[in-house]
Write a structure and sequence with these properties.
This protein has about 190 residues and is mainly β. It has no helices and 16 strands.
């Protein structure tokens, strides 16, 4: 058990038989009434984000998430196969479990599979990935306003807003949290 007073961003907890990670929290001490902790939690089973208020000092279960290094091998229909890099065991995850992550997943990429008491919750991607531009809008001559952007489609099918100097074939670093362009990847 852990007290809500000890919340930290990234902490994983169990509340009412669901597994959450703490995205944000705020200790509130009103002038009148008892103190409480307002928190923003992400459900690791379904990806939903909820806001929840706890009484100060309330205890919740601590969830110990296991992260195993695995390599993405291939897709077969709606199933995506991963291999444990140490034991060579293979597991499959469904399209439903990987909706957002599929925008960044490339064959032979190493990732971490999150599990809780044997139940696979999903995958942890690196903070950014390098993806090749396969299609991009043409730059319009004279459109040089500061911060001008155009649309580019990368090898995984994700559309990214990029600066005008990006061309087809360029490799970009893309943030896996929000899918935004970070920089050109260094070769």
């Amino acid at each position: 058990m852990i007290s809500v007073n000890d919340f930290k961003t990234g902490l994983t907890i169990e509340v009412e038989h669901d597994i959450f990670t703490v995205l944000d929290f705020q200790h509130v001490k009103p002038g009148k009434g008892a103190a409480f902790v307002r928190s923003k939690l992400k459900n690791l089973r379904n990806g939903n984000t909820v806001e929840r208020t706890f009484r100060a000092g309330e205890n919740v279960g601590r969830a110990h998430i296991e992260n195993r290094e695995m390599q993405y091998l291939y897709a077969a229909g709606d199933d995506y196969t991963f291999m444990d890099t140490e034991t060579y065991d293979q597991i499959s995850l469904s399209h439903e479990q990987l909706k957002w992550e599929l925008n960044f997943l490339k064959e032979n990429m190493n990732i971490k599979i999150m599990s809780y008491q044997g139940e696979i919750l999903g995958i942890n991607l690196p903070k950014s990935v390098d993806l090749k531009v396969v299609e991009t809008d043409a730059s319009v001559k004279g459109n040089t306003a500061q911060g001008a952007l155009k649309n580019a489609k990368v090898e995984t099918g994700l559309n990214v807003m990029v600066p005008l100097f990006i061309n087809e074939g360029d490799v970009l670093s893309v943030d896996t949290d929000d899918g935004k362009y970070l920089s050109r990847a260094s070769n």
